[in-house]
Amino acid sequence: MKIKSFNYLLAFLAFLLHATTLLASDIQSIGVPYVQNYPKSSYLSGNQNWSIAKDKNGIMYFGNAEGLLTYDGKYWQQYKMPNRQIVRAVATDANGMIYTGSFGEFGYWSYQNKHLSYTSLVKLIPKPNKITDEIWKIYVVGKKIIFQSFSTIYTYENKKINVIKAPGAFLFLHQAGNRLFAEVLGKGLFELQGKNLVPIAGSEVLLKTGVLSILPYKNNSFIIGTSKNGLFVYDGQKISPLLSAANSFLKTYQLNNGVKILNKYYAYGTILNGLIIIDEDGNVVQRINKSSGLQNNTILSLYADNEQNLWAGLDNGIDRIELNSPLYFYFDKAGQFGTVYSSLIVKNKIYLGTNQGLFASPWLPENGNLFNSFDFKLIPNSQGQVWELSQIDGQLICGHNDGTFNIVGDRMERISSISGGWTIKKLNSNPNFLIQGTYNGLVIFAKDANGNWKFSHKVTGFGEPSRYVEQDTKGDIWISHAYKGLYKLTLSADLKRATNIKYYDEKNGLPGSFNINIFNVENKILFSSDSGFFVYDEISNHFSKYDVLNKNLGSFYSSNKIINAGLKKYWFINHGKMSLVNLSEPGKILIDSTRFSILDGRMVQYYENISQISSKIYLISVDDGFVIYNTTNTENKQEKLKLPSVLIRKIEDITDKYSILTENGNNGEAIEIPFSRNNIRISFSLPYYRQSKIKFQYYLEGYSRQWSDWSSATQKDFTNLTRGSYTFKVRAKINEEIISDVTVFEFSVLPPWYGSNWALACYALIGVIALIAGKRIYEAKLSKDQQAITQKLQTEKEEFLKKEAEATEKHIIKLQTEKLQAELAGKNRELANSAMSLVYKNELLQKLSEEMNKLKDENGKKLSEDQLRKIQKVIDDGMNDERDWNLFESSFNEAHESFFKKLKANHPDLVPNDLKLCAYLHMNMSSKEMASLLNISLRGVEIRRYRLRKKLEVPHDKNLVEFLMEL
Q1: Predicted pLDDT at 12
Q2: Residue 492 to residues 365, 428, 476, 574, 650: CA-CA distances in angstroms?
Q3: Do 332 and 625 contact (CB within 8 A), yes or no?
Q4: Largest Cα–Cα distance in the chain?
Q5: Nearest C-alpha neighbor of 679 from the set 703, 649, 663, 698
Q6: How crowded is residue 640: how many other Cβ atoms within 10 Å of its Cβ?
Q7: Residues 6+ away with beta carbon under 8 Å from 909
Q8: Res. 423: pLDDT tops 80
Q9: Looking at 602-653, which runs of residues are DSSP E strands?
Q10: Sequence-ordered strand ranges (E) for 336-394
Q11: φ/ψ (deg, to 5) at 860
Q12: Residue range 646-662: average pLDDT?
């Protein structure tokens, strides 16, 4: 037993040593680095990609079956050759020129008239030479550009082309450092020195091998890759085979090309099985093919850029391999083991718990190899759902649908038959016991005499599904299930039964009873929910939001799972999205989620599993395999990373129909936009190709007031721009951390036709003419105004005198009127007095008449009728004396001269008595007074009034007196 344990210890030490090696290496040998696929459907061009290059601005160029293909990190663009030929070779120089070669054609691409245009160099070939085959290789050596076909090498310098012929047909020209080598079929290897081909001594060993790659090697030597005989080394004196485990692979699958990467590795593409990466000692470090992420196994071209990306041009598509990636992958492309729920590395074995059973493979490669391709095999009798793998006190425990098992090597030993071992962990209050949550309650495990964990008993009194189990500082057990809710149990001292069970829901402050999970973070029990994290207060028996954490977690406040990552770091998983949260600095929470975005949705939801292999390496379970996360690469890389500048790409006119103003806003050419076309779209991109979260911020001087918000948008529309000069500024930020330098693009909007220079000159001329004309018009107007003012003063003077005369006349008239009114008032008074005198006279006569009838003679007898009649006649004559009326009428006419005229004119049928009554009514006399004057009774007055109304046709609603007063 001791020997066995010692062997395990040695294996584990070897594993740790290997893990340390992984940390120190740039490329890991377990799993494969991240591979980003660019299928034909994304770049919309031909299947085959024969060559790759990158320019000084970071733009990628691909020699494609349908022409030249460009990619800037966001936008793909295709350019056709003159005769739509396949572009076999592409290269770039320091001046921004892009050189391409195809059948019977080679030349360069440059920006002309704001568009990328092609210029052929074939016309410079000296006569009688003529190009009749494909250009397969292009190299830039200083100011010299070298084009190679199977028959000829062409060198272009100072606008002249020299032709170099060989004693036979070329295979391929290779650049290794500053030296150029070419294989001449049937003759061996030659070096191109100036215009001469110098044979390499001893290269006869390479005859009929097909030299397809020559790269700089250690100690100033060269490593030569052949299609049939593997790898060789040329030390400057002789050529000898390189002993490497890669040789058999390269011979079998036919080496096609090669490139040096990270200054110490060599990547070789094959025709039949993807690519292989070896170190300087010939050890295979990586093997990447279609089953591990490539779109196609035929590698037509390889290119290593300056950002640790390895680009592969495929027979169908383009792939980018992220060298020095913190994430390495292993996928079960064949569907061998199903969906992975848990993974763990124990004693040089990696175990995968899946929905089909438990699978195991050696973790470290055997036979001294660095690269491990893994060979997973099903552990006998493990078929079925595996929920959890845990290593506790050196013992690997498997929670299974059929129970709980102890795993020893490739054997399973059942230690519990209770179904559904979801989670198992030590009791904080008593580390000598394990507590397990199962389908129907809790199970307790204890150690036997040999120190192995064994089933002890099932806790009675509680039988609910127990997905998550945590023990708090008081020793109480918290249990939750996504659909069954949250419980708190108090166990008996012997842990055999639940003595107290409490159920918690909305009444206790929780947002609900569904999807409440329990986790221990820094010895504090947290309760997760879709509304954020909650904590429990024992005194109030109430839950409250843990805002200190929620407000600092951003979108991860609603995480459904937390996994301890060690060193005060925790994995927060929010429904398929994951982040690594660092709590090591008091009062500060650091969240790293961007680098894991490629894993979004790839873990088994609600059963996410991440195991810590060491302080720097983690094993992440995903649906169809696992991912290795190495933090060393991320720590070293952030310090060195220098972002490229943002590129201004197409500038488009979007006024009514779309048109391209320029394909490259970075070429420095002035852009002038007509005022009538003042609606533009600016596209931009960051030529940074590694997996990251990129955001942009822009600012248009002369239009905007401040920088925009950070956004992932890569174009911006500006509409209704006014005339003037503008400066567009843009910068990028990756992973919410590193910000690029500001890129500037200047353009101007021309003034409208009415604001142009000639229009302004016309305006100035018109202004001068207008000033002269205005002056003359003003002088004429001034003279006219002076005359008008003089005339106006004369008119006003005359009007004043006229008004003064009118006022004097009105005053005189007023005085006369007042005099007449006074006279009229006097006459009215006289008339009234005369009338009253008549009234008094008649009343007196009437009274005498009445008194006379009462008179008696000396005998006491009434006077005789004859005497009375005579006296009465005298009285009646006095009362009806026309002289009185004539005198009254004369006075009335003097006061109201037109009264009777109007009455007679309007009513000719009026009799004198009617006229008298009208006069008396006009003077507003009473009926009694009128009766006295008319010598009639009051009744008679009323009758006459009535008749008079009819004759005058006075309306019913009109007063007779008012009617007469208005005449």
Answers
A1: 40
A2: 50, 15, 10, 36, 74
A3: yes
A4: 205
A5: 703
A6: 6
A7: 951
A8: yes
A9: 610-612, 617-622, 625-630, 647-653
A10: 340-346, 349-354, 358-362, 377-378, 386-392
A11: 85, 20
A12: 92
